[in-house]
Amino acid sequence: MSGRTKLGVLVSGSGSNLQALLDACAQPGFPAEVALVVSNVPTAFALERAKKAGVASVVLEHKAFGSRADFEKALVEKLVSAGVEWVCLAGFMRLLGVDFLGRFEGRVLNIHPSLLPAFTGLHAQRQALERGVKVAGCTVHFVDPGMDTGPIIAQAVVPVLPTDDEAALTARILKEEHRLYPLVVKLVATGAVRLEGGRVVTSAGPAVGELSLRNPGEPG
Ligand code: GRF
Q1: What values do phi and psi take at 157, rounded to 5?
Q2: Residue 153: C-alpha distances to residues 14, 109, 120, 121, 217 (Å)
Q3: 46-97 pLDDT, tens per residue?
Q4: How far is CA 109 from CA 2, 135, 153, 164, in A?
Q5: Ligand 1 center to residue 6 CA distance, Å?
Q6: Which residue's alpha carbon is at the smallest distance from atom 1 of ligand 1?
Q7: How far is CA 192 from CA 23, 105, 107, 184, 199, in A?
């Protein structure tokens, strides 16, 4: 047994965040491994990434189930039988209910391409451009039953440039997503970040400082 924290990664699309997690897990000493990838979309490119990395994957199409409860029950069964301890949503386009979240209480993460609580839901980057914000970014948070509403763990900020279109801003944010998500996974896997009484608690440590923006003028 490896002793590394087993992750279940839930995807629906391209899976570039899954790739960032797979790449991090391939580094020696990284405290987590991807035990199972689950997609609710059979054509998701993320499934190719899992296959290439030699990681088990399964397709569970929500449409094939009579109810959300049945879909989530099947999801839990797959994750539990793979030994999954932490669940990472990575572009997974379904809301999860209290039964699922109760089964993995305080151990479900999501990444969202905005500085939450601004711009929840779909097309966060487009919403940001439409409102004319001057900075944007991404957020990793614990998942609760709401849409992108759970306790915030980490954020990264990027500038919004006058020349940006949705694709340019999306690409700039994604680069930060790929840095931030593995960092948070590392910290939760080692217990340096955890949820206590609905609040995010962080232990002291060098990597914890990277969970938020540092003023470049400030020491360490
Ligand atoms: C990312 O922007 C993520 O923040 C959001 O969905 C997108 C997924 O992209 N939740 P990918 O599938 O990881 O490439």
Answers
A1: -115, 140
A2: 24, 9, 16, 18, 23
A3: 999 999 999 999 999 999 999 999 999 999 999 999 999 999 999 999 999 9
A4: 22, 23, 9, 29
A5: 21
A6: 91
A7: 21, 17, 13, 9, 14
* Interatomic CA distance for residues 72 and 60, integer angstroms: 10
- Sort 110 into a burial class: Cβ within 10 Å, 0-12 / 13-18 / 19+: buried
Q: Is 39 in the pocket of ligand 1 (CB under 6 A)?
A: no
Q: Which two tokens stand for residue 69?
A: 């409860």
Instruction: Return the percent helix, strand and coil in the chain, to nearest 5.
Output: 35, 25, 40
Residue carrying structure tokens 């954020």? 155
- Catalytic site includes residue 141: no
Q: Can you read off the two tokens belonging to residue 35?
A: 């035990």
AA letter at 1 = M
> If we measure between CA atoms, which residue out of 212, 188, 213 comes closest to residue 108?
188
Specify the residue for token string 């924290």: 5
Indicate whether residue 120 lines ligand 1 (CB < 6 A). Answer: no
